[in-house]
């Protein structure tokens, strides 16, 4: 048997099950609860390896159920929901912009916002909860898409009016920086107290920190605060830079096409 320190509680549970064939579910849950829930992902492979070496008898198999099974189901559902949300966002943005490049910029900001979520969880010392953190990532997508639509739509309008790319980007940032920042800041401030475990009771005029009611929502609020803050930086810095890079690439292709046309025009009279 392995000597993994965190598997001690599970070994006690295994011995208890071996000695007592008839075991109440309440006793099982109490024994397994000796390991913190956010560290069971590390213990589970050790526990499965220990049980695999145990002779349970002929035609007897085991399977982990309970919280692990429910968490896996929730994770699979949230992955499908996130994929469906990205597809619907893609379809709506493509119908609005009619350009794959603009759609790709928006979806890139949505996907990269997960970096901010992971950084926030590490800073706050929070585990990655599949359900609440996943909901926070999906909730961020709505605000991120809205901010990028405002930015890119203004840029496209200025370009249609004949404004050069560099000046159009500067004007877009001047016009839309305030709405983008205000939208993100209001959303962040709304959930910031929950991210720090603060519970505000308006009826009794009390503020408590670390109340049981806030524990369930800390992962969700942390994902929103840091994910949205990171995505706002992407919207105001990376998105304009990407628009400028796309404009430079298009200008380079136009110059190359013009040089090629000029060379062809110079060769044809000589022939």
Would you mind describing this structure in some detail?
The model is unreliable at 1-38 (pLDDT under 50). The chain has helices at residues 8-19, 25-32, 40-52, 67-97, 100-124, 130-160, 165-195, 212-215, 218-270; strands spanning 198-201, 206-209. It is 77% helix and 3% strand. It has a two-stranded antiparallel ribbon with strand order 1-2. It is built from 9 helices and 2 strands. Helix 6 runs parallel beside helix 9 (218-270). It folds into 2 domains: 5-52; 77-267, Up-down Bundle (Multidrug efflux transporter AcrB transmembrane fold), CATH 1.20.1640.10. The chain has 271 residues and is mostly helical. Strand 1 (198-201) and strand 2 form a beta hairpin. The longest helix has 53 residues, at 218-270.
Gist?
With 271 residues, the chain is mostly helical. The chain has helices spanning 8-19, 25-32, 40-52, 67-97, 100-124, 130-160, 165-195, 212-215, 218-270, and strands at 198-201, 206-209. The longest helix has 53 residues, at 218-270.
């Amino acid at each position: 048997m392995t000597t993994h320190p965190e598997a001690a509680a599970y070994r006690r549970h295994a011995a208890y099950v071996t000695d007592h064939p008839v075991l109440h579910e309440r006793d099982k849950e109490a024994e397994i609860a000796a390991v913190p829930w956010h560290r069971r992902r590390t213990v589970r492979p050790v526990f499965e390896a220990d049980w695999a070496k145990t002779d349970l008898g002929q035609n007897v198999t085991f399977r982990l159920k309970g919280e692990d099974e429910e968490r896996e189901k929730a994770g699979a559902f949230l992955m499908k929901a996130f994929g469906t949300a990205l597809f619907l966002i893609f379809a709506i943005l493509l119908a609005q912009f009619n350009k794959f490049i603009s759609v790709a910029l928006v979806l890139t900001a949505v996907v990269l916002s997960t970096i901010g979520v992971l950084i926030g969880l590490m800073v706050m010392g929070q585990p990655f909860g599949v359900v609440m953190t996943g909901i926070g990532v999906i909730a961020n997508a709505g605000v991120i898409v809205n901010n990028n639509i405002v930015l890119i739509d203004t840029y496209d309008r200025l370009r249609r009016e004949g404004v050069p790319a560099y000046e159009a980007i500067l004007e877009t940032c001047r016009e839309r920086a305030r709405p983008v920042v205000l939208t993100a800041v209001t959303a962040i401030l709304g959930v910031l107290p929950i991210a720090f475990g603060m519970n505000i009771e308006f009826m009794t005029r009390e503020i408590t920190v670390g109340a049981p009611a806030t524990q369930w929502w800390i992962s969700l609020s942390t994902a929103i605060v840091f994910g949205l803050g990171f995505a706002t930086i992407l919207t105001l810095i990376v998105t304009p830079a990407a628009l400028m890079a796309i404009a430079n690439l298009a200008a380079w292709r136009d110059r190359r096409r013009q040089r090629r046309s000029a060379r062809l025009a110079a060769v044809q009279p000589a022939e």
